[in-house]
Amino acid sequence: MNIKNKHFYNTADFTQKEINNLIDLALAMKKGKIKKSLSGKSLAMLFFNPSLRTRLSFIIAMQKLGGLGVDFPIKDGYTFEYNLGEIMDKGTIEHVKDAAKVISSYCNAIAIRSSELITSSAESVKVQGWSELKKDKTMKSFMEYATVPIINMESNVYHPCQGLGDAVTIKEKLGKPKKKKYVMTWVYHPKSLPMATPNSQILSACDLGMDVEITHPKGWELDPDILKTMKQRVMETGGSLNITHSQKEACQNADVVCAKSWGALKNYGNWEHEKKIKENLKEWIVNKELMDLTNNAIFMHCLPVRRNVEVTDEVIDSKNSVVITEAENRMWAQMAILSSLI
Ligand code: CP
């Protein structure tokens, strides 16, 4: 596998063989096969949005590999201009064209979190429509101008490190995931969250050759272009993909139940409307009754989670819950990514 110097924007930019190699490398590292292969190398991290797991696991991943992770405090008010030809006489400090090249001259990779919907405020933030957000302007601009690999730590569209980390967890827990049943269930959440995480989680289940069931209320459909890629990838592995609006039907005989909430694409920027409709969807929760329908499934959630809103305490604290291992495996997955790209 040679993926050196490639951007890690979406797992589907890589062959399934490359993805499997990364999963195996992460699992080998977890078992102790770690070399200080990044000694003298550094990673710059730009978080435009809050994070706990991604921030800490990347810093520690770099340290375990002998390198340095630098978390640049971008949220202190550093602003970039993205439009070409702009007369920069207003608020932005620096054009991304210059900043991306400068940061590249200091370090060996740049990791970026830029997702308009991730916020620490209690309410959903006002955003542009999906067609605008789907362009992932911040991430794509850095990818265009940087001269070192860009690692996507979650954009509006994909969260490939979560996807790969989940694949590591599924392989670790299930052994041979091929043709096992994977359920991605939408769950209620008071805020309207990005769909980057479920997109990447489902893509990973497809790459593992699983029988994938997606269940969500009517109106919460995933992006048709991304669904098309999921179908292509799952066909290549001999798995399958099905969509249902019945959570109970989806969970019958499941081996993996992964819960995630996301905002409906058609409601982007109109959250007041979505909030009213969602009031009737609070039964979309993972509880014991639902888990009892499964084939003793493991329970997954990317965290952070709203306990007793998305999943009951009984389920997330049960022996079938793998959420802590799932968070840990983010670090091993990222070590595999970092050591392969840099
Ligand atoms: N799952 C995840 O990406 O967590 P953070 O938002 O805490 O990084």
TrEMBL record:
EC number, as in UniProt: 2.1.3.9
Any one GO molecular-function label of the UniProt entry: amino acid binding
Record's keyword terms, sorted: Transferase
Signal peptide interval: none
Classification via InterPro entries: Asp/Orn_carbamoyltranf_P-bd, Asp/Orn_carbamoylTrfase, Asp/Orn_carbamoylTrfase_sf, Asp_carbamoyltransf_Asp/Orn-bd
Domain of life: Bacteria
Keyword Metal-binding on entry: no
Family: Belongs to the aspartate/ornithine carbamoyltransferase superfamily.
Descriptive protein name: Acetylornithine carbamoyltransferase
Classification of source organism: Bacteria, Candidatus Roizmaniibacteriota
